Amino acid sequence: MASIRLIIDKRRKRNDGTYRICLLLYHKGKHVYIPTGYNIPEHEWNQAREIIRTGSGTFKKPIDVNTILMSKKFDAVEIIEKLYRSNELKKMDALELRDRILHNSEKVSFYAFAQKVIDELHMAKAHGNARVYENAIKCLKRFYPKKKDLSFAELNYQILMNMEARYRAKNDSINGLRIHLQTIRAIYWRAIKEKIANRDENPFNDYQIKTGESHKSALRLNDIKLLKEIDLTEKPNLNFARNIFLFSFYCRGMDFMDIAKLKMKDIKNDRIYYKRSKTGRIFSISINYQIRKILDQYTPKKKYDEYIFPIILKNKPLLVDEVSDQRNLYNHRLRRLSKLAGTSKTMHSKLARHTWANTAMKKRVDLKYIKEGLGHANLRTTEIYLDNFDDYELDLVNLEITSTGPQQGDINLKNVQIL
What we know:
This protein is α+β, with helices and mostly antiparallel strands. It has 3 domains: 3-102, no CATH class; 111-205; 221-418, Intergrase catalytic core (hpI Integrase, Chain A, Orthogonal Bundle), CATH 1.10.443.10. It contains 15 helices and 9 strands.
């Protein structure tokens, strides 16, 4: 009868120095490799026990991954035994047997596969994307709390429709659900590519993800003025939140994570150089008067390798969870600031970025410059950030455009540089 065991595939080494963990199927004198979707360095694999070693640095919870791997092996063994008892096994060659094992999706756990994808994102330090995936799975589990596990075969069209109906019943934003469903769809397609899920059973073949109108929100320049003028002498925590918000606005909507990571060494020749955490793109920003005024409050006596802003107090590598906690505190303070200053919109960490984009648009900056300033890959993403003009604003723009006098208020992009 056919046999199967877990091994690392040493035939080819991946660029990151790891090897694929595979099921090695032996049948009728031939070996066939079945990828499990996991990769690991050779020294973290115990071949005698067919498990990942306890001290593995690749996975946060190697025990959980070992459970998944053993489950894959036992499922394959069960399929082989059933085929043997039905006399089908002797009619199949190794490749046919492999295909039968791969396409037996009824017992493959969607949650386990999703966790594998999340682990890989954390390993690649794409922690933001990992949180998006984690939130999507939490959303799915929230609607089906009694189902401790979910196979790909069980994740069907009806489940997606039920999720949508329950989401609408709670009056939650359909765009919030859209993000979760797009993530679930991405996981499903990844499983199809790895031959774990069946393309024909993909529920997204029939289900259309709904898209609501994007909520476009930005402060007006008058709000920025109100924010700057409010006296926060007796409220140092709110003053710090205001400084971070204004710094983000002046730096073309720099993300909170990137502000937290800024160090003294990132300032060179009156410019700030940083790599955006979300995209990996490098930005270069001229230090103008407003930026300098804020920096001067935090840079004196700081050493070359110290963080500029006291977001994480100890000078150590930033942990995503710590920065996330600080962002939550920052957002709480911004909400308090909004009430004190009387801004037209409730402030939050992303609002500075939207405000910069909308301010540029209302000063008639070409959309391609706004796109580059924000570091977007395409104009469609940029357009999502932008408010629609109301009639009064359009009248003013038209008056300015049709005036025979000189144009006023254009943003000078001479000092804006994108690397």
